Amino acid sequence: KAGVTQTPRYLIKTRGQQVTLSCSPISGHRSVSWYQQTPGQGLQFLFEYFSETQRNKGNFPGRFSGRQFSNSRSEMNVSTLELGDSALYLCASSWGREETQYFGPGTRLLVL
Amino acid sequence: DAKTTQPTSMDCAEGRAANLPCNHSTISGNEYVYWYRQIHSQGPQYIIHGLKNNETNEMASLIITEDRKSSTLILPHATLRDTAVYYCIVRVGNGGGSYIPTFGRGTSLIVHP
């Protein structure tokens, strides 16, 4: 069974731009969560989607948003990029909301 | 959700057992202990999880104390490829409700020849 895939793997943007990252969960998994990882803050939870609805949200500004499609694929969007948004963005999927999460390889975003 | 405390770093000789401790003194009855590891900026890899019984799989063993306030991840024969940051987290296993996963800083395990 294929693992979680994320695209793109690397991305360079400039301040003020917006970016959309994509995540395809493991086949059959319906829950998708997003995380941001930086050297300073570590691995931080962004939000969780299940059945196309955001079920949980971490402590991030409204510039960070996401959605989930009927096939469970998910996208996250960051608007008005700031230098501090440079990070590894990780997606994790699970069969159900409280099941074991499996992570993708991440998208490394660099904001210049 | 309960928070966890782990040593910042540990080292282990190749071929020996690596025992990684984790304290979770405020764990609730319905919270599971999960272990993940992350190798140099790759996505975290699931290792094992448990509720109150000891667990073993092809990667590791998980020993949970009887009061569930601490646990130990055991890599029985550590190899150089086990060098990684190991995260211990606790999370609700069922029943729904809000859950904010908190990974903390983890333990940086270095396996040396």
Q: What order do the helices and strands come in, and which of them pair?
A:
The complex is a heterodimer of chains A (112) and B (113).
Chain A (H helix, E strand, L loop, with lengths): L4 E3 L2 E4 L5 E6 L6 E8 L3 E9 L2 E5 L6 E5 L5 E5 L8 E8 L7 E2 L3 E5 L1
Parallel strand pairs in A: 2-11
Antiparallel strand pairs in A: 1-3, 3-8, 4-5, 4-9, 5-6, 7-8, 9-10, 9-11
Chain B lengths: L8 E5 L4 E6 L7 E8 L6 E6 L4 E2 L4 E4 L5 E6 L8 E9 L14 E6 L1
Parallel strand pairs in B: 1-9
Antiparallel strand pairs in B: 2-7, 3-4, 3-8, 5-6, 6-7, 8-9
Report on the structure:
- The complex is a heterodimer of chains A (112) and B (113).
- Chain A is 0% helix and 54% strand.
- By secondary structure, chain A is an all-beta fold.
- In chain A, a hairpin with a 3-residue loop joins strand 4 and strand 5 (42-50).
- Chain A is globular, with a radius of gyration of 13 Å.
- The model of chain A has no long low-confidence stretch (mean pLDDT 95).
- Chain B has 113 residues and is an all-beta fold.
- Chain B has strands at 9-13, 18-23, 31-38, 45-50, 55-56, 61-64, 70-75, 84-92, 107-112.
- In chain B, a hairpin with a 4-residue loop joins strand 5 and strand 6 (61-64).
- Chain B is globular.
- The model of chain B has no long low-confidence stretch (mean pLDDT 90).
